[in-house]
Amino acid sequence: MRLIRFLIAFACLVVGAVVGALNVQPALVDFGIGAVPTTLGVALIVALLLGVMVGGLAVTASLVLPLRRRLARVERQSRLPSASNPGN
Fold this sequence. Notes:
It contains 2 helices and 2 strands; from the N terminus they run H-E-E-H. By secondary structure, it is mostly helical.
């Protein structure tokens, strides 16, 4: 499994390097209060990376955290002595 993860990460790194190398046109990213001069390849890779991070945070906030709370609640309830079994 580690080898597969490594190969996928390496492939993404190679694709990012190729995209960066093929898109060397200058680009100006304007944020309203300031502008950052960069190349088009760097701007594309940064935009994709930010999109992945925001998407991951959205999935974490909407799915993972509620499921962890639910699991913790179920584990707490399973550790409490059962009311239906007062003899133990």
